[in-house]
Amino acid sequence: MRAIIPDALKLQLRYPARAVGILGALAMAAAVFMPWAYGPGALDNMTLWASPSPLQLFFGVLALLVLALLAIPLVGKPKLGRWAHILAWNTSAKTSAISALAMAGVAAIAIAIELGGVVNLDPGAWVALVGGVLAVTATLFLPDSPPPSLERVKSAKWLQITGIALGMAAVLFGAAYGLGLSDAGAFLTFAAFLVGLVLILRQFGVFDWLSIAAANNRQVLVLSAFTVAFAFPFTQDGSDATMSVAAQVLIFAATALGLNIVVGLVGLLDLGYIAFLGAGAFTAAVLSESAFATIDFHPPFVITVLISGAVASLLGLVIGAPTLRVSGDYLAIVTLAFGEIFRITMNNLDGNDGPNLTHGSNGIPGIPDLSLLGFDFGQPHVILGIDIGRFANYYWLMLLVMGLIIVVFTNLNHSRIGRGWVAIREDELAAEAMGVNTFALKLLAFSGGAFLAGVAGAVKAHYDVSVTPDQYVFLESAFLLAAVVLGGMGTVAGVLIGATILKLLPEKLRFFSDYRLLLFGLLMVVMMRFRPEGIVADERRQLEFHDDSEELADEVEEELIAHHAHLNPDREVFEL
Amino acid sequence: MELFFQQLINGLSLGALYALIAVGYTVVYGIVQLINFAHGEIFMIGAFGAFATWTVMGRPADWPATTALLVLLPLMMIGGMVAAIAVAVATERFAYRPLRGAPRLAPLISAIGVSVFLQELIRLFFGTNPFIPSSSWPVRIPGWPDAKSAVPFPSVTGISGEIISIGGVTIQMPAVFTLGALAICTVFLWYFVNRTKTGRAMVATSQDPDTARLMGINVDRVIVSAFAVGAALAAIAGVAHGLRYGNIDFRMGFLAGLKAFTAAVLGGIGNINGAVVGGLVLGVAEAMATTFIPGQFGSSAWKDVWAFVLLIMVLVFRPQGLLGAKVVDRA
To answer: What is the ipTM of this complex?
Structure first.
């Protein structure tokens, strides 16, 4: 954009542009109170005057942001004081305007498709669109602001904690509201709003500030994140539909986190990871109380989980020991072959082509619900007057498992072992020369990752009620890998986001299911091409992928210095 | 003994199929050290390209053997090759070339994406016309089959369903076709690599890309030609697969690609002769395993497992492969 409109012109036109932009923002704000659609069937009933629907109110938030960002600077620089520099007013206004226009556009398209034609757009939608176009055009003509410096603002501890709490509350609310939307158009419109909001907040520098606040209050962050995740079932009021999706997302995310150790930290491409999940699931199924279980030994679940993990990690050792000695590329193929061996073997152990262990392609059905310490996971409970169904029980259990995996992950990441892993990932030869026992560390990661998958698989077996070999095909491994890649290899937050996106979108966008895999393949190629480090980038990883970018190196260095200045305020200078 | 020779022939013809695909893995790996994960899909697209050519020709059936062998089969093979080469070159251009010099994980992940994408592309769009907007999009092309399930491959008079028997051993004509194709391709490949300028440039690049570049070799073009050669052979394998099994489907590239990669590793990845030998050995091993392993584990349901066990064994005991690789572990 900078290149298209010359700076001189921008400077010349800054007052008329601001006026037009405010006009556009006002139009958008007015559109909130107008009907957008002719019929109530589209989105969330946008047919009424002066009675905005929730989505319209969300749109209003964006409109007001544009208005505020354009109008407040009119008081003049002196009155703004240091806030003139802290926020990137003009650039943020541009982002907000673009986000608002995008949201209005998605809503208009959804209305037109759901009601069958553009005729069904009522004046409100048109006013919003025209206002959006006006605001975007106008903000394009505003001079660019310097980058925001919110992260340099010293803030009190209570403010930081409040910020984290607010962020977490917003996540909880967004998740509960978004999951509750059953209409695909409404979901997409809401998603457009969320993406827009995140982009605007990033433009404000809120995320930089939050990451510093998070680094200063790690316990608060972790605790609040878990509180929010724990509280989520209470927002659903016993609705099983949403909770079953949420539990599935958690199982998927926990497995992806395990894979993240192998791929993200050590850089070993494991394409048969789903087989370890399957090994855990089959072990748990065979040892369960199911009438179809083939081994007459039914230990309590606590034991079963450990056995499942041990079986999976044993398989990891068997596969890893021979292949981890040779070049990394082989590992990818061998694990892929192992995944196939696992699936075929489970198919064949049906009493016909081999000893009967798994009932072949029929699998093991009728696995009873878990019962831990007298708590039956199949029974609904009432807590604080809110129904907690079967899925919510499993959701909480998976939350515990995931918490365990995250603790393992972060502790390992910051330990001697973790540094060894990263060294192996970055340069195996150099790591070996520095005395890192590369083979042992790789084997540890590989079988450790398998153990975690085995544990997740044991829970999954009980959650799914039945275990069949065709749940554990290569495509599932590819999905897990995609979650890790999409979110950001080597990060916890990124993988959680990636797993949520990959599991949630297909659930919400059913009309789309035929093209899901096509887009998924394309997404992986495009991701590798343009943002190989994923949505949430691990800084070191980002440098690895863009090792010729001097600019990025400087940026990361500067960020580290700023970060350190916050952590150690007494030290004046920090040398890298 | 008869059984042994029968299985030897079966194994060799199966192995010839693997060998034709394996060459593509090995050539590309030798030059760019990339496991072209999508190569199995190129094989599948070759088969569908041949099938599409046949459909465009008006689905000729019951041609006399001479015209079928001299006109229909070559045209189908050319159609398959064109499709396979076009897709392979496009893949290289858009998915792999931008990632040259990136960490090794990046192109591998990209290759998985390409693999899934190509499978879905065939599944969704084969026989449908995505360019005509309509309420019931996508629109079907009249007379074109849908690739969402297995598609019967056209039969070629003189090959499909014919058998010859020598002694007590019966040999199916598609098997003869596969072995013959492998023989011709091997000769062609030998000539191409050792006698043509592009082939020698390929060898030079695989030995040392930087020096090759200094010597005035256009490395980009060499890489493209490596992809193209691999794709052409994979397309021939695709036609052979169609003739052998009588139908093709969009999923067939996955397992075939995996087996062919096993063959390439078995022979020593990066070594073209090794790929041919490795393919034949793998095919024979698979055929023998289903016959001579006693008990339940000798049933054909386990043959894929034995092939992959062989892969793991080779990596343990002889990671450089049977013939020794020219480039191994340069990472």
So the answer is: 0.86
